[in-house]
Design a protein that fits this description.
There is one protein chain. The protein is mostly beta strands. The termini are far apart. Helices cover about 0% and strands about 40% of the residues. The strands form 2 sheets. It has a 4-stranded antiparallel sheet, with no helix packed on it. The chain has one domain. The chain contains no helices and 6 strands. Bound molecules: zinc ion. The site of zinc ion has 8 residues, from loops.
Amino acid sequence: MEPAAYSCRHCCTQYKLVRQEAPPDRNREIACLSCRAPLESREGKFVLKYFRVRRPEGGASFKVPH
Ligand SMILES: [Zn+2]
């Protein structure tokens, strides 16, 4: 399924949102990686998975020499 764009309502951190079919007993809390605000973890029969999108200008993890 196509990932959807999602941004946290509280801190605007960007995520890719992927829905996965899962049995209804798999219910776990998901929180924003930046501000710890709770995120929707289910949508009907789907569980929602969030993948944080890195901002291109914030590349502090390693430097590419020019
Ligand atoms: Zn947030």
